UniProtKB/TrEMBL annotation:
Native source species: Algoriphagus locisalis
InterPro entries linked: WG_beta_rep
A Pfam entry, by short name: WG_beta_rep
PANTHER family per UniProt: DUF3298 DOMAIN-CONTAINING PROTEIN (PTHR37841:SF1), GLR2918 PROTEIN (PTHR37841)
UniProt protein name: WG containing repeat-containing protein
Length: 521
């Protein structure tokens, strides 16, 4: 072989090896651990059951079902995935692809808002709108503000004027267009306030003097000396309640006063409680109110009526569980029932809710446990006690965590730095920066010796040790050796991805010297 050719091949191979020496090898298995294929990518991201991203060097690709590059995503990293939109970041900004592969916005924007059939992009105070139905991008101009509402309307503001560029009357201006968590936009014109549906049409004409959103599709207003409770509707909004008596809406509490006296607790579309003698109402939770009366009684009111009947000798009643409600008297807490009777006298500085017939209580600084009869189960010697589930509670003492049973006995003699409960009753534990796993009876199934541990499902635990990743089951048996950089699992498609570094094989082509026959001696 020619010597110059040999040198040229060696140079090319050396260059190729130096360029690819950082490549990553991925092996794809099914969930029965049968090898399906091998892939060469630096990174693989599973964004959804059907959207997979591969990165090789500076090239980012949307992958096909067989994990081959199908569409180049142009950018260098995935900025965000908001189904069905893939936002991609590049040197000059953010752009967008549809998950089917179509690039719809170049990578040059600062911000992109998404909706299932449109995108709103901006650079500084300039805005562009992409509409998938028309497959086009429209320049909206220089604006002070623009947004997509949760119903898909576009609201823009320029100075003090608002408009809806996608409505049937895009040039119409408003004094206010306000989005909320309901399905209707609150609009204001010189004639008053109204409500606009997702098509951009009025379902409540703009004639209301004042109007504000309360919850969902409900609104509180005032017009022509009447207080109004209004429910939005796609065709025509309905006035659910109206009154010439004063209705206030402050701190998420709606009250009606008759002749200056508190008479009714209101809900979004009508009367929740009509009673005489009320002096004040305080909100203590979602749709929960403490109602105070002139005769010094206090009751707990819920969405469907009294949760705790008004009772004496109580200052506050909290939401409860298992038929018992934490309540305070003279600064101490105990428990009352729904009839307004003390079941456990007020004697604690603080209590938790009952769970599986047990609750935690605090005296001064430390916590203990009582049962639903008020009997002490565990002394107040704990810094923290979490609710009982399946007969066990997580408790903290001297900065360490323990598992506590319903007899007040700890199941682990040596404390952990932290304990996390899994959804099916197992416990992830940490000690000295290492993780392990306990079963539902607090028995060790995986020793506390891993830097990371994630229980994907029963008998499939992804672990990290010494910078490498593997999979073990709950008996400690190795399923996938702890020898990989990363492991990804796609249960929906029956795939397991393992990542490993590799160094390409160096191929040397050496020209052997020509052999000459020697003459015999």
């Amino acid at each position: 072989m020619n010597k110059n050719f040999t040198l040229l091949v060696s140079f090319i191979l050396t260059f190729f090896i130096s360029e690819t020496s950082t490549a990553q090898s991925w092996e794809v298995y099914n969930t029965q651990l049968q090898l399906q294929s091998r892939l060469i990518y630096d990174e693989i991201d599973l964004l959804s059951e059907t959207v997979r991203i591969g990165k090789r060097g500076n090239e980012l690709s949307l992958l096909s079902n067989d994990f081959k590059p199908a569409v180049s995503l142009v950018g260098t990293e995935i900025y965000q995935y908001l189904e069905p939109w893939i936002l991609v970041k590049g040197p000059n900004g953010i752009g967008a692809f549809h998950e089917y592969g179509q690039q719809v916005l170049p990578l040059e924007y600062e911000k992109i808002q998404t909706y299932f059939n449109m995108l709103l992009a901006s650079k500084g105070n300039e805005y562009w709108l992409f509409q998938r139905g028309f497959n086009k991008t429209t320049y909206l101009g220089e604006l002070d503000e623009a947004k997509i509402t949760n119903t898909g309307l576009i609201i823009i503001r320029k100075g003090d004027e608002y408009s809806m560029p996608l409505s049937t009357n895009p040039d119409k201006t408003f004094e206010l267009l306000s989005d909320n968590d309901g399905e209707f936009v609150l609009a204001k014109e010189p004639s008053g306030f109204g409500l606009i549906n997702r098509e951009g049409d009025y379902v409540l004409d703009p004639i209301i003097e004042t109007l504000q959103h309360t919850h969902g599709n409900f609104y509180y207003g005032f017009n022509q000396d009447q207080y109004l409770l209004i429910e939005g509707n796609d065709i025509q909004s309905n006035i659910r309640y109206n009154s010439f008596h004063k209705i206030t809406f402050e701190n998420d509490i709606m009250l009606e006063y008759i002749h200056g006296k508190l008479r009714r607790v209101m809900e979004d579309d009508g009367i929740l409680l009509d009673d005489v003698g009320m002096t004040k109402v305080e909100k203590v939770g979602k749709d929960l109110y403490n109602v105070y009366f002139r005769d010094e009684k206090v009751g707990l009111l819920g969405k469907k009526g009294w949760l705790v009947q008004p009772m004496l000798e109580v200052e506050e009643i909290k939401n409860g569980s298992e038929g018992l409600f934490p309540a305070s008297s003279n600064g101490a807490f105990g428990f009352v029932n729904s009839a307004g009777t003390w079941v456990i006298p007020a004697q604690y500085a603080e209590t938790t809710l009952f769970s599986e017939n047990f609750a935690a209580y605090r005296n001064t600084h430390n916590w203990g446990v009582i049962n639903s009869s008020g009997e002490q189960v565990a002394n107040a010697s704990w810094e923290e006690i979490k609710p009982f589930q399946k007969g066990l509670a997580i408790a903290k003492a001297n900065g360490k965590y323990f598992l506590l049973n319903t007899f007040g006995t700890t199941l682990n003699t040596e404390g952990f730095d932290d304990i996390y409960r899994t959804t099916d009753g197992f416990f992830m534990v940490e000690r000295s920066g290492k993780s392990g796993l306990l079963d539902s009876e607090a028995k060790e199934v995986i020793p506390t010796e891993f830097e990371g541990l994630r229980r994907e499902r029963k008998d499939f635990v992804i672990v990290q040790k010494d910078g490498l990743t593997g999979v073990i089951n709950e008996t400690g048996e190795i399923i996938i050796p702890v020898a990989y950089e990363k492991i990804l699992v796609d249960w929906a498609n029956d795939k397991i991805f393992t990542k490993n570094s590799f160094t390409p094989t160096v191929i040397q082509i050496i020209e052997e010297p020509s052999k000459k026959n020697k003459r015999g001696a």
